[in-house]
Structure formats: C-alpha cells, structure tokens
Automatic annotation (TrEMBL):
It comes from the Bacteria. This is ABC transporter substrate-binding protein. CDD domains: PBP2_Bug_TTT (cd07012). Belongs to the UPF0065 (bug) family. Gene3D superfamilies: Bordetella uptake gene, domain 1 (3.40.190.150), Periplasmic binding protein-like II (3.40.190.10). It holds the Pfam family TctC.
Length: 323
C-alpha cells in the first residue's frame, strides 16, 4: 500500500472509515520507539500536550516501545489501524536509516507509513567522562588511532543514529575497528557507563548530555552540527575540528500507518505546525539544543523525507557497520 501524500485529498480508507467526522473521539497514542528520557521522548511529550490542546482531544499520550534501534516500535505502528489513533513519533533512524541496516526489517517505510510532520532538529554532542584525562577532541583522536584496542564507544543500539555517527567519527579519526557497545536501555544506559569510565565516548542530544556537562560529570568535545549550539557555544563543531564537513544532525517526525484519511493527516499536521507560532515553545526547544525545523507544508514534508533516505543511505555506506 503506497504512502498517502500529505496534501492529497480523498475518501477514508476502509480501515479508517468513519473516523474523520468525530476525530479524535478517544485518546490518541504517540508511540516513541526509544527509551524514556531520550531527546525524542522529551519532545514527544511536549507535542502530545500541544496536539491535545489544538485538537480538543480527550488525551494524546506517549507510549515507549524501545528496541532494535527503534524498529520494533515502528513495526507495531506499521501494522496498527490507520484511523489516526496510533501514531509514530520517531527520528530519521526508523524512516531513513533502518532500511539500510536491517535486511529483515518488518516494514517498508515508504509503503507502510504516511508522513505527517517534521518537528525538531537533533544536533548531537560527542562526550567523554568528566573525570577522563582526555581533554579535547584532538587528544581523543590521537589516542584511539594509536591504541584502538584500549578504547570504546556506546550507542542506543546497532544501526541507531548514535551508532552510525560514532562509527563515522571513529573512521575519520583513523580507528575504524574501535569497540562498539550497544545498549538496549538507550541514552540513560550509555551515559551511566560513560560517566562511570567504562566506555570512552558517545554522542547524544544536548537534552541528554547537557545537564551532565553543566554538572561536570561529562565533558563535551565536539558538536555534531552545521554550527555551534546556542546553548553550548564553547564546544566547537566536528567540522571545525576535523577540517572537513561532518554533520549527521538528525530530526524528529510524526507518521501514521499508510492509508490514513487525508483529512486526519491535515488536522494532525496543522496541530503540530502551531508550535512555530508559540514563542515559549520555540525557546524551550532552543534551550534544549533541539531547535524547531523550518515550517513545512505537506508537500515539503514528503520531499524532505524522500531526500533524507538518500542522505542516510550514503552515511550508512560510509560508516561500514560491518567493521
């Protein structure tokens, strides 16, 4: 079943018949395929409140279903009824990365999902323990290149954004065989091991690492973004440090199972878009290091997501996760 273009008109599908007239008539679920406390989980809860207000919904609630780089939860929504009550709030991982990492993926993104909105950008920060004797990026790069067997990095799971970004960094630091340790517990598990000195480095969103950097438990070595973060202007970008372009900024988006009514898609899209007109929300996300993505029409959302598939296919190929 082909994904429904966001701006397209049309009648309700058989699975969603009757939903548009009263939608939402019962609680709406946003499934986040990552652990509680992740940057995506934090954003989903903010948008759930916004959507509930804008649509006068009984409730919009978040359910976490982590595992396999987000693909377990995404698969659940791909098979859910397309009546607007089961939605996926996720990242580029489940849409643009997973198809090139998991050969037996239980869903096909473009076939099984309808894109609804793109919400926030998620730049990441490379961190080490605050107690580490690794003082800066140059020091880290020199050490892992000279003695890769002594160092390691953690991620939120095999094929996750944090895995690919860390592997790309390891490649460019001259240590492609650096030990990778994936965590089912997600960001919290990784950061616990970094702060405890049992892993060397990791990358994650500012909303995850920022409080620990401020407290001194983590040290930020590089920002993985086009430019330095407004909330952390003293942390240089990886592009500055490597002397070559390096930006794997990911993003959050909202999807529904394919075949959903175009009327419901538009209502959901419009409810999410209101966030751009709320200065407090814009500032909140800016301060979390996850600024809003540019406002996009339905057609622009679809075009953006198609482009991201091409972008991440190239990143996955370069990362070479088999090494």
């Amino acid at each position: 079943m082909a994904a429904t273009p966001l701006a397209a008109g049309g009648l309700l599908s058989s699975r969603g018949a009757g939903a548009a007239e009263t939608y939402p008539a019962r609680p709406v679920k946003l499934l986040v395929p990552f652990s509680p406390g992740s940057s995506t989980d934090i954003a989903a809860r903010t948008y759930a409140e916004l959507m509930a207000r804008q649509m006068s919904a009984e409730s919009v609630f978040v359910e976490n279903r982590a595992g396999a780089g987000g693909t377990i939860g995404a698969g659940v929504i791909a098979r859910a009824p397309n009546d607007g009550y089961n939605l996926l709030y996720s990242t580029a991982t489940t849409w643009a990365i997973a198809p090139f990492v998991y050969p037996d993926l239980s869903y096909k993104p473009a076939r099984d999902f309808t894109p609804i909105a793109v919400t926030i950008a998620i730049p990441t920060v490379l961190v080490v323990s605050g107690d580490s004797d690794i003082k800066d990026f140059k020091d880290l790069a020199a050490r892992v290149k000279a003695h890769p067997e002594k160092y390691s990095y953690g991620s939120n799971g095999v094929g996750a954004h944090s895995h690919i970004t860390s592997k790309l960094l390891a490649n460019r630091m001259g240590a492609p065989n650096l030990l990778h340790v994936p965590f089912k517990q997600g960001s919290q598990g990784v950061m616990t091991e970094i702060m405890g000195g049992r892993l060397t480095f990791a990358v994650d969103a500012w909303s995850v690492v920022g409080p620990h950097i401020k407290s001194g438990r983590l040290r930020g070595l590089a920002t993985i973004a086009k430019e330095r973060l407004a909330v952390a202007p003293d942390i240089p970008t990886a592009t500055e440090l490597l002397g070559q372009d390096f930006d794997t900024t990911t993003w959050n988006g909202l999807w529904a199972p394919a075949g959903i009514s175009a009327d419901i898609v538009k209502r959901l899209h419009d409810a999410m878009a209101v966030g751009h007109d709320m200065p407090a929300l814009v500032t909140q996300f800016q301060n979390q290091g996850t600024p809003l993505m540019p406002r996009m029409s339905g057609e622009e959302v679809n075009a953006f997501m198609k482009d991201q598939i091409v972008r991440w296919q190239a990143f996955v190929k370069e990362a070479d996760l088999t090494t």
